[in-house]
Amino acid sequence: MRIEYVKQEDQLSLKRSGLLGTSEQIETVHQIINEVKLEGDRALFRFTETFDGVQLNQLLVSEEERLNAYNAVDEEVLIAIKQAIHQIRKYHELQKITSWFQAETNGTIVGQQVTPLDSVGIYVPGGKAAYPTSVLMNVIPAQVAGVKHISITSPPNKEGYIPPGVLVAANELGIEKIYKTGGAQAIAALAYGTETIEPVDKITGPGNQFVALAKQAVFGDVAIDMIAGPSEICVLADQTANPSYVAADLLSQAEHDEQASAILVTNSNELAEAVKTEVDRQLVNLPKQDIANAAIQSFGVIYVTPTIEVAIHAVNQLAPEHLEIMTNEPMELLGKIKHAGAIFIGPYSSEPVGDYFAGPSHVLPTNGTARFSSPLSVDDFVKKSSVIAYSKEALKENGKSITALARLEGLEAHARAIDIRLEDLK
């Protein structure tokens, strides 16, 4: 990892390759979406054969496939999935918000009605890898919010199956509609529907660049969670941090893909040098050494600052997806962090704790968007309606102010809609 020295006035940002895709990729995604809209299931079967290398005769995962998945999952994994479900559900139950109403002395009632979305589609990456925690982290907040209809899409492997861990996670949550389709075509199916797949109101879940481009393309016809980029980790540390812990956590994100970002911000030159050495040492025995090394070489950096205050300023500029604070008194710094997707406090709060088990959803804002957006939560699966019940007394009291504002904006019909009632109330 390279080491850079930062001053207070330096402007930092995450080095990132283009997320929006090339014009050819965008054109391909739009073509796929249009073909799914026109041909439905037939297009999904064709694209699955083209991109996933497998011919399917049905999209819906069968009951037999879901139950057989349990035979392919170790008991230890099943226990871990059940424990994670408990932890994640317990956390998100605390996020629930309720409708509220307030009555005024003049008889007016104002408030907010909170209702869950009718339907949600969850995209779970697949193919070469299995991500059962993507099921848990997307489905559980939706269930806690009260969403009744939840479906999952995921690309099949070369044998035409979805990984057993994904099926077990979905089954433990009671999800019955699991479809074997991935990529941009799956996003199109969730957005517009096919003969087999019903359209949904919102699509969430991570995916590759084509999935991200497809979500961007269908946004407006349906809601989406976010346009997620490659994973990011930033460690804020002082001289008390354990270099081996810091290095291990940086590599935990670097192994995601070649574009993952791994950053250390510290006021200790000694720690910077120790972590640099430790990263090189740990890389040697990492199974995904090639991927992690590429990420470290391209998007790994150690920023050394003159003070911890400048380090905090640097972190807020970066607005990372994951932020670990490994300092002597980490809780004292928490209130100074303005921009981060998830914050991990202390040496034992390693980022994988949040990825898998602690409770908060691991679907987080990336690419610096933590400056203005939040992790996936129960709030993402509800909508809020304003409620206004005006009384006669309130209209008599405020009617002239309402008409004055309407006429100020040149909207005479607005004003007359109030005037006609005021006349009746004289």
TrEMBL record:
Positions with a binding annotation for Zn(2+): Q253, H256, D355, H414
UniProt-listed Pfam families: Histidinol_dh
Cofactor(s) listed in the protein's UniProt record: Zn(2+)
Annotated residues for binding of substrate: S231, Q253, H256, H322, D355, E409, H414
Positions annotated to bind NAD(+): Y123, Q185, N208
Active site, per annotation: E321, H322
UniProt catalytic activity: L-histidinol + 2 NAD(+) + H2O = L-histidine + 2 NADH + 3 H(+)
Record text on cofactor binding: Binds 1 zinc ion per subunit.
Keywords: Amino-acid biosynthesis, Histidine biosynthesis, Metal-binding, NAD, Oxidoreductase, Zinc
Sequence similarity: Belongs to the histidinol dehydrogenase family.
The protein's role, per its UniProt record: Catalyzes the sequential NAD-dependent oxidations of L-histidinol to L-histidinaldehyde and then to L-histidine.
Name of the protein this chain belongs to: Histidinol dehydrogenase
Organism: Shouchella xiaoxiensis
Gene transcribed to yield this protein: hisD
